[in-house]
Amino acid sequence: MGFQRTLLSKIMSQVKLFHNSDPVKIQLRNETNRSVSLTDYVAEKCPSLVGPKAVYHPTSYLFNGHLQTGYAAYHNYSPTAHEVIYERELVDTPDGGIFSLDWTPTKEGLENDQTPTLVVLHGLTGGSDESYIRCILEIVTYPPFNYRAVVMNSRGCANTDILTPHIYSGGYTNDLRTALKHIQSRLAPGTPLVGIGFSLGSNVLVKYLGEEGDKTPFKAAISVANPFDFRSSMDRLDESFIGKNVYSVAMANNLKKAFGKHLDTLAKGGKINPDEIMSSKTMRQFDDACTRKMFDFTTVNNYYRDASSCRFIEHVKVPLLCLNALDDPIAHGICIPYDEIKTNPNIVLATTKYGGHIGWFEHNAYPTRWMAKPLTEFIVAMFQAFDVRDNQGDKLEPANIDDTIDQIQSHVSHGKTA
Fold first, then answer.
1. Name one GO biological process term (predicted).
2. Please, what are the domains in the chain?
């Protein structure tokens, strides 16, 4: 019994928060304009981040970041209790390219209501079908929440074509600007938007927010497993055997698979050598052969420096939650810009000791993602703060939110899908 207690104590992680000593105030228009600090609001609405319930218990056999990260790849094909059904829309870019938007539950009639809308950015070579995205959307787009979501699939991702010699990157934010302008044109005026980005997508989101300051249409945002500092993150990968020979190789292969079918189009710009790209073995080699050349950087390290959201995070002007696991082998904990985050009153950083890269699996028989609770709590809190609809439905308390998530995730655990 004593051994079991010791083992459990070793594989539990109290959530730790980092923030400015004088957080920004939020005006709650739906609560007689009550003014509350961001951290006090998080404490009220997000028990998975603050208080006795703010503890993450990893799946016992996924006890380190490598195992959590590896299981995430396996789990990516797992069903959700609520099927997330998308309706696709292609959006033209100013240079003649396209990216796709996957709307759920529908892309029709958007101009007729002001349903709060979650804008989602995926990770490297990902897309709307990623399990880390579906595990959130299966909750927030279904009763009792009934919010809307739209996933932005980057050029070449999620079966989106590449029509011009131009790709996306971790530092390219213009396609996001185009997406937001289009999304706003489809929605009723005043519809609140909250952004959430995962991994590479979180870096793009935070960099964009820092560039835009108070000009962004987002009311709030969430960054999940952000690498923050590309140069440092890549150095950490190259320093370890598994980083350089497993993770870096896997990411490079995913990029070659995504862009390989479009090499003839990409080569028309005269910037890249397709053979050099396809012979690259690691992430750094791919970025040197392709990414930095496509975006006109003289060295790959200059690309990494320019793309890193740690340079922009202190300029973010909307409430931003950052969630990172300190044992993440890809978005390494040492790269988190603690000082810059603590200078900004708009940001709350939450860290866990365990969780891997977009893992955070808990339970043993049928692991599900713990992150669904804190992320949903924050999404609902921000939407409730900025919802402009006359009929907003019943206000959900945090306990009701967490109970709903438990019920949804238990359906998958028992093999029941809607």
1. medium-chain fatty acid biosynthetic process
2. 14-229+316-413 (3.40.50.1820), 230-307 (no CATH)
